[in-house]
Every structure is written in C-alpha cells, then in structure tokens.
Amino acid sequence: MAMERRQAEDRLLDLLKEAAEECLINSSQITKGFDRMIDTVDDLSLDIPNAKRILKSLISKAASDGWLCASSLKSLLLEPRKRLLEDSFTRTFKMKSQSIIQEYFLSGDISEVCSCLDAENKISSGELNAIFIKRLITLAMDRKNREKEMASVLLSSLCFPADDVVNGFVMLKESADDTALDNPVVVEDLAMFLARAVVDEVLAPQHLEEVGSQFLGTDYWGQSASNGKVIAKGSTFWRAHLKVLGWWW
Description:
The protein is an all-alpha fold. It has helices spanning 9-21, 27-44, 51-64, 88-107, 110-120, 126-141, 145-158, 162-174, 176-179, 186-199, 206-213, 219-223, 225-241. The longest helix has 20 residues, at 88-107. It is elongated.
C-alpha cells in the first residue's frame, strides 16, 4: 500500500514501527514480509513502474529507524527462485499480456488473443506461455465469476502444451501465500481453476499431482499449507464435477 500511495508512506512505516515496538509482529515476520515483497517486485513493476526503487527506499528507512535488519533480507539484485526469464523482452511480454487479457475480458474475442500471442511469442516459448497463464488466472481471480469463466474458456482454447500449463500453475502456487493477503479465497479459486483445466482436458488428472510434486523436497512445500490444500481441493472439485452437470461459476 505504501508503494501505491506514496503520500501515506510515512504513516504506514510509523504503524509498522509501532507494531514492532509493541511486539505485535516479530523480527522474523518483518523479514519474511519484506522478502516476499522482494520476490514479487518485478510483478509489482507492472502496476508501479518504480517499484524496485521505492522498495529500496522503504527498506532503507525501516533499517535507519531500527526495526528492520536490512542485512538479513534477500538482495534486490538477485532473481527470485525459479525465475524462468527476466530479461527486458520478458518484462515487456508481461506488460503486453496484461493488456491483452484486460481487453479480452471486455471483448471476449478469443481469436484476437491468439493473434496477439502469436505476434508476441513468435518462438512459442514455453516459459512465456506459463507466464501468460499465471497472469490470466491472477487477473481473473481478482474479478467476478464472468471473468473466471472467460479465463477457463480461453485457457482451453489456447491449446498450450500440458507442461507449459503445469508450469503456469506452479508459478501461481508459488505466489499463493502472497495473493491470499488480498484474496483470502485464493486456495479455493486456484483449486477450481486446476479442476476446470482437468475437466476441459487441458490437463490430465495425473497433472494435479505433478503440480504438487514440483515442491516436494523443498522448504517451500513444508512451509506453505496452502499448496497441499490446492491439490486436495482441486482433486475434490474435479471428482465432484464428474457426478453433476454444469460448473461452479
């Protein structure tokens, strides 16, 4: 919020400082919160062009006030874990993808989306396909059922390779805990998108477990209960749909 509303920055930093001094939040929680911001700063840059510079400024002010240990944070110069592409072309693709998806939600023109993607992703890069899927579902989860349905219809129409779709959902799961701060039902939404992908034959049932297996053996899998819930709910929704007609949206 401080990054979006610069006029409120000082008040929000004072609030965080007071919370730290009153032991409402501890140093570990503060560090984890800022690390998550560092991990998502490139995505934030789509809406806040100077996001990285602003975040560096916030970290500097918090450290100078004594309630944040800057040396314990991840480096803003390092790329987030499992970042597939972060060159200028990819950042441009992310911004164009957002525009393409927003226009699609208004027009419903699937053929136009396909044409735009063909123009922007000439080499049919799997990494870019996964990035587009993540952006599509992320934007849909912030909207009403109409857009969620449109996103699922588009996903089934794009005919992306299953591996690219799996990678897109893995990227969504990686950011699920952060998304939950603004969307408390992200687990349910993401599980329904996964189940819908199976019903629409975008993914096979075994791909549900493949999405989960991407985290097996990692710290992230052990730390985030939301990931197991996504897979469990996705399987439940998929099996339930086989017994009834219609859909949940």
